[in-house]
Design goal:
218 residues; 2 domains; eight-stranded mixed beta sheet; 10 strands
Length: 218
């Protein structure tokens, strides 16, 4: 999304530095249990949120929300961690890729993973399976608050995914989180340079204050 300075700052940071910053600030934002389909996948964007629930009788629709999502956004789907009913497949991947979406995050399962891998479209999910979600789950809400791996996600929050998983940066805290993560990232780079120049790891960590980087500040 052009002109989104904080999004560009987040794009330069790994989820590890962002996670440490969230810990320091005592902000829950780690989407635990959500992993990339491929370790090369990276995704950074603002959240467009989707909530699913168990299907009623007769079952409701799974929704055609994909047409409403702006380019550069990350689709974030709360399916309650269900792994027995997929909520994303190859048609969704094809459309998302063509529309220029930044990626998809699912607390639940996806399927047709081959297309995601061949297109390089980033999907992060709890699992994958062949079993459809049609008549098993239904759309409950679009662009409202949801939960992903114990972290709360609101529309417009920054989502960052990489080989270690996914974090969410709440909009109201993003400047503080990004500043802390940039500091942590810079100090860890100082440690790497010091070790490469011959300093012991223990001394480099002591001088640069490694053991306090993630500590909550009073």
């Amino acid at each position: 999304m052009p002109g989104d300075e904080n999004l560009e700052r987040a794009r330069k940071l790994d989820t590890t530095a962002l996670s440490d910053a969230l810990d320091r600030l005592d902000i829950p934002g780690q989407c635990l249990g959500i992993k990339p389909l491929d370790h090369s996948f990276r995704a950074t964007g603002r959240a467009f949120t989707i909530l699913y629930g168990p299907a009623a009788k007769p079952p409701g629709t799974v929704g055609d929300f994909i047409d409403d999502i702006p380019a550069g956004a990350v689709v974030v789907i709360d399916n309650g961690g269900r792994e027995n009913a997929t909520v994303w497949g190859d048609i969704m991947t094809m459309v998302a890729h063509r529309r220029g979406l930044a990626g998809t995050v699912i607390d639940g399962a996806c399927r047709d993973t081959h297309l995601s891998l061949s297109l390089g479209y980033p999907i992060f999910s709890r699992s994958y399976s062949m079993r459809t979600g049609k008549d098993r789950v239904q759309l409950e809400g679009v662009n409202g608050p949801i939960n992903i791996g114990d972290a709360r996600v609101n529309p417009g929050d920054i989502i960052r995914g990489d080989s270690d998983g996914v974090v969410v940066i709440p909009r109201e805290h993003e400047s503080a989180v990004l500043s802390a993560a940039e500091e942590i990232d810079a100090k860890e780079e100082q440690i790497r340079r010091a070790v490469q120049e011959g300093m012991t790891l223990a001394e480099a960590r002591r001088q640069i204050g490694y053991h306090r980087l993630q500590t909550k500040r009073s």
